Amino acid sequence: MKKIIKSLFAAATILLVAQSCEAQKVVVNREVDTTNDGKMLLGTQTKSQLLKEPYSSWYTKEHDQYTLDEATVAQLKKEKLNSYNITLVMGTWCEDSHREVPRLMKLLETLKYPEQKLNIIAVNRKKESPSGEEGIYNIQRVPTIIVQKYGKEIGRIVETPKTFYVEKDLLEIIKKDNSSIKDLFK
């Protein structure tokens, strides 16, 4: 009797896990056609979507023209930016996103940042996505670049970097986090 109950429990557990996984399916690379803004990306995205028209017209130009600050890039490698997770909330309708997103991507490519550690969420003008992925981040302006370590936000860049260089602002965030970690061991 115990074996039967264990088997039934195991089968029920597998069924619940399977249903749970199915309920969490995320639509990736959703594109909509709007009356006022034309084509727009919404929800979870991959970088490859930005390389397609009509987004590539602004993405490629800014990406190719932006010159990274090499000294800061070297410091970001040393400070191990690749050990952090980044969430980017952007709007394909937003001029600030048109400027900052390609710059961020160029930096991440240069650093060989793991794509699986980058979460891109595209929102509409109300700063909303269809599945509400942005909801936990309290987005007021886009783009918003959120740096996380162990699931905890350690800093963000909102709309325009304070230093006018996304790499310099990211370095400030990482250094601040690393110095607070070092303070724990003093």
Describe this structure in words.
This protein is an alpha+beta fold. It has one domain: Glutaredoxin (3-Layer(aba) Sandwich), CATH 3.40.30.10. The chain contains six helices and six strands, in the order αββαααβαβββα. β5 and β6 form a beta hairpin. α3 packs across α5. About 10% of the residues have low confidence.
Briefly, what is this?
43% of the residues lie in helices and 20% in strands. The protein is α+β, with helices and mostly antiparallel strands. α3 crosses α5 and α4 packs parallel to α6 (166-184).
Described by strand count, sense and barrel closure, the largest sheet is: 6 strands, mixed
Cα shape: globular
Q: What's the CATH H-level superfamily name? A: Glutaredoxin
Quickly give the CATH architecture: 3-Layer(aba) Sandwich
Output the helix-strand order. Answer: HEEHHHEHEEEH
Give the C-level CATH assignment: Alpha Beta
- Which spans have pLDDT < 50 for at least 5 consecutive residues? 5-22
CATH topology: Glutaredoxin
Distance between the termini: 59 Å
Which strand order does the major sheet show? 1-2-4-3-5-6
Helix content: 40-55%
Tally of extended strands?
6
Radius of gyration based on Cα positions: 20 Å
The total domain count is 1
The helix-and-strand class reads alpha+beta
